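Notebook, bench 3.
Goal today: get a predicted structure for Acetylornithine aminotransferase from Pseudomonas cuatrocienegasensis so we can plan the truncation constructs. The sequence was checked against the plasmid map this morning, with no discrepancies at the termini. Length recorded as 411 residues. Pasting the sequence as submitted so the record is complete.
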Amino acid sequence: MSVQHDPVNRHPVHRADFDQVMVPNYAPAGFIPVRGEGSRVWDQSGRELIDLTGGIAVNVLGHAHPALVKALTEQAGAMWHISNVFTNEPALRLAKKLVEATFADRVFFCNSGAEANEAAFKLARRVAFERFGEDKYEIIAATNSFHGRTLFTVNVGGQPKYSDGFGPKIQGITHVPYNDLEALKAAVSDKTCAIVLEPIQGEGGVLPGELAYLQGARALCDQHNALLVFDEVQSGMGRSGSLFAYQHYGVTPDVLSSAKSLGGGFPIGAMLTTEALAKHLAVGTHGTTYGGNPLACAVGEAVIDTINTPEVLDGVKAKHARFKARLEQMGERYGVFSQVRGLGLLIGAVLSEPWKGKAKVILDAAALEGVMVLQAGPDVVRFAPSLVIDDADIDLGLDRLERAIASLTQG
């Protein structure tokens, strides 16, 4: 396929421009993707790559999915923004569908996972304050967790490398090892307002929660009048093979955050909760300019309509098996992976001892062979592709990955 060239009036830009005009908080790849279709992208030179990153678990239906393009363009011709002084039809339709599909009765829309988590954590503290008084504000989260980059969410996240160096830490946040129920029991008290967990740790290495651990967290919250908050920003919207991972486990939270795949590439976040808890966010207690934006919600509705079907969700489980079998074969053949873990199409290939710390090396070598993969820390190669990726693209992408690994082992 040929690359579509820029219209005449656009100034040509190159990767070198990044280093001149952008804040240096990212280190992007040396090539610039310019077009995508399904699970393939093309860069400025016209080179084709297989995309197994899904925009970091965002492009849940790949690139330029017809249902999403149609929803966005139709809404763009009708209304872009109206503000929360008014409501709008796409927001109401999407909220109804999320409520119908989950434990939740109420939805708060925002623009990102960090904002969804910010709302969840503020809600937890507000509920505890109004029901039990100002001393019940402590939040327990997991080490190696990731919940966003705002000051509150980065402090709840259990990775000091992201939270250090920005002044005093937010008080009342404790971190305990993930999947360690005894540590959780030791940390919880009547001052705890919330236990915050990812059902599958994403950035922390694609580590699924153990059923007994998540059940234990639920019981501890009930015992101590605390809220169980599940961060499903990365694990949600079909990625686990269930619409949300909590449904896979059968453990129901009080509050759930969603983003990433919710918009299929269009920025949107949502906090889901019950009617009884939602009433604590009365008029004026929280807000956002763009939350519930008609464009975002129209796309979100097309996403949920497309993926919340037995065909797609069953397909995710079948594709998981295909990925896992092939990655385990590679692990054995080249001695590169010690374990392949995850749920659905959120998969982590854990690097073996000799390869520890080299996830970025593999990622770069893969890109040279024409396949885009991710890392989850320095020791895990992560895959979060489109949920509707063709089996042929899985096979071709993993062929290219294997070539990259073979060249590294031989080199």
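The domain at 15-52+310-410 is CATH 3.90.1150.10 (Aspartate Aminotransferase, domain 1). The chain has two domains: 15-52+310-410, 67-307.
Flagging this for group meeting.
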